[in-house]
Amino acid sequence: MPKDGTDPADAYGASSVANALRTLVYLREREPARLTEVSDYLGVARSTAHRLLSTLRGHGFVEQEPGTRRYRLGPVLLGLARRTVDERTLVRVARPHLERLRDESGETANLLVLDGPDVHFVDGVDGTQPLRVAPRTGDRLPAYGTAGGKALLARLPPDAVRLRYASGLARLTPATLPGLADLEAELARARERGFTLNIDESVADVHAVGAAVYDAYGAGVGALTISAPSTRMGAARAVALAPLVQRAADAVTRDLA
């Protein structure tokens, strides 16, 4: 058997899976822990332990303490250990905020949740304008083509986003983001400014702005959006409406706590 503790006959990677699970149990009992401590505990080379921890970190199962080289359990694993916000509760809590958002903006407001590579529109209210975008309740779209979907993807570790779109991004319109590198850049901008835009990316001549809703643990559980025809909501107006969406999303987050 190699010095790193792996078995060359282990075609299905069971040894690696076992070491990953042992690492998570070890961190639960000893966190934070250094690379050398994990390596010694597993009985593998430091390079092997480093690859293992890097993979777990890329998927959000572990994270490094800021400013140190010590590792601790990450947000994805912690999220699996707690009760998540169920969709019915999210819709009930968000509904009055959707209606207020519609009244303040005059535009259609939607509530979306992430479902694998897609978003599911779970609620929405009609705008007050004669010419408006209809709510999309019940529809599913690739998350990267929607403002709300991008707001939720921005909360995920980069590797988790790449896994969702391992085959690349299908073009929904000529304005859809062309590739993963473009999506990653867009998500980085979203993390900086706290909102996302959809400018003709899922439906031509429809623009939207979105912001994420969080649970008590800081995990993204949904997103609110305002959508309107491009003739009335250009990119500049979408940015101007972003604070309304952010305030509404923050209000839902508070009510879920």
UniProtKB/TrEMBL annotation:
GO terms for biological process: glycerol metabolic process; negative regulation of DNA-templated transcription. The keyword DNA-binding applies. Residues 14-75 form the HTH iclR-type domain. SMART domains: HTH_ICLR (SM00346). Transmembrane segments: none annotated. One of its GO terms (molecular function) is DNA binding. The keyword Transcription applies. Residues 76-257 form the IclR-ED domain. Keywords: Activator, DNA-binding, Glycerol metabolism, Transcription, Transcription regulation. May be an activator protein for the gylABX operon. This is Glycerol operon regulatory protein. It comes from Streptomyces boncukensis.
